[in-house]
Design goal:
It is found in: Cell membrane. The chain has 13 helices and no strands. It is mainly α and 307 residues long. The chain has two domains: 74 residues, no CATH class; 216 residues, MetI-like fold, CATH 1.10.3720.10. The protein is flat and about 85 Å long.
Length: 307
Amino acid sequence: MKASTVRRVGGRLASLFASLLIALSLAFLLGRLSGDPTATILGPLAPPEQREALRHQLGLDLPVLVQYLDYLKGVFTGDLGQSLQFYQSNTSMIADRLPFTLQLVGAGMALALLVGIPLGVLAATREGTWWDRGASTLALLGQSVPVFWFGMMLVVLFAVKLGWLPAGQSGSPKHLILPALTMSVYPMAHIARLTRASMSDALAEPYIDSARARGISTRRVIWRHAFTNAMMPILTIVVLQTGILLSGAVAVEYVYSWPGLGQLALQAIQFRDFPLVQAIVVFGALVFVVLNLLVDVLHSIVDPRVR
């Protein structure tokens, strides 16, 4: 391996580690600023002796630096602590809720890709026509509409008025349709706009004119030549949007009472369960670090210039 490659990989890993450490530190700080958890657990009328005993049991009477170092040690050894409200391991609670969020994110991103990429390609290949204007308008609306409002409108229409689909909870594939559709709106619009811009740039390149001059079919020119070269930014945004959906599914899960990580995060915030809030934030930070590393790896595989 070349020395320049080693330096680039080492620099990238160091940058990702620094980002993770900053995120962990912010999670620790915000957890300590959320208030005294003993008041939430024992109630405001608990005697001071009982509250002090609980603070000692939770390690809150230790110096802040010692608490921070113990916190980092637990994170890097896989021990994310115990919930103050549910009296369970935070790691096991996240593991129990994660499959529901993964199911929701996977379905939402699949819808976003199935609609967003063809919509962007259609707009780019018919630039300046009403197809282009219509697709661009839909994409702009998709990025502008609040997710929670869109979710509630879908519930009113398809669950309350028409009675075709359940309004919330999980269980059958029918329960997944409305949450996945709501989840897909923003990434679908983002992917469509980025695909349109990348494809427009690719179709203006000289090699596209050369391919057409050789008599290659329009479909092959678009998908084999233009889309392949326009795929890098699309691939990047798909991976990053997956991380955003995985960490930010709170609004959708709240609207549909979906039992995922977002619902768990809301419950932890409501009860001031700062160890659980920290654990969920740490998990989100780890997801972003891993996905950023995955983007770099995919770039090196797809684009020979990166290698």
